[in-house]
Amino acid sequence: MKTFAAIAVFVLAAGLPSPDAYAQAKASAPAAPQPAPQPAQRPAAEWEARTGDAWVDRQLADINQYAARYRGAFLDELVRYHAAPRELVTELVMKRGWAPGDVYYACAVAQLVGKPCRAAVEAWQQGQADGWRAVAKQFGLGAQQPDASARMRQNIRDSFVRWGRPLAKPEAGKTAAKDKAAKDKRR
């Protein structure tokens, strides 16, 4: 008890504020301004994968949301399971502002045909106006490799399992019939 009294006398004699005064000052101080968060990709309303497969497009849109929150796990997935160079995928997402869904699809397409992710990135930069479906065709996917769609879907499922994430549900108004109509339209 004598030690506490000695400290109290020292604090008062030295003119130091009491613990209560410190707490009051901290509570009344204005909060430091926080920097505005930077978007991980273009807003969802503007972003479209345009793969030609509505199911894949939904999953890629969900990957955008997942990567915005769990960027490290997303990048690790591409490096570990899609043979993508970490420097490349980090640059695409962090510096060039690519949507994570675009980065994922580029690396997944490249892996399906045995090419480096960088090759699909370069093809996308030259032909993105035509969408991922056109870029995938340049790589020989589509009618030439009928099992490519099934393999792409399985790759996406495997990624979601590793992330412990459920597959994206169809949006309101999207039905299996609409998915089938979109598939028939591609043919």
Enumerate how many helices there are, as a single number. 10
Structural class based on helices, strands and sheet pairing = mainly alpha
Coarse morphology: globular
Please compute the radius of gyration using only Cα atoms. Answer: 26 Å
Strand % is under 5%
Note the run of SSEs as H and E: HHHHHHHHHH
Average pLDDT: 78
Biggest sheet character? none
Cα-to-Cα separation, first versus last residue: 87 Å
Give a count of the beta strands, DSSP E runs of length 2 or more.
0
Low-confidence stretches: 7-12, 32-44
* Proportion in helices: 55-70%
Give a verbal description of the structure.
With 187 residues, the chain is an all-alpha fold. The protein has a domain at 54-165. It is 64% helix and 0% strand. The protein has helices at residues 2-14, 19-28, 54-69, 71-81, 86-95, 100-113, 117-127, 131-138, 148-163, 176-186. α3 (54-69) crosses α4 (71-81), α6 (100-113) packs across α7 (117-127) and α7 packs across α8 (131-138). 27% of the residues are buried. Mean pLDDT is 78; it is low at 7-12 and 32-44.
List keywords for this structure.
187 residues; 0% strand; mainly alpha; single chain
Short characterization:
Helix content is 64%, strand content 0%. It is mainly alpha-helical and 187 residues long. It starts with a helix and ends with a helix.
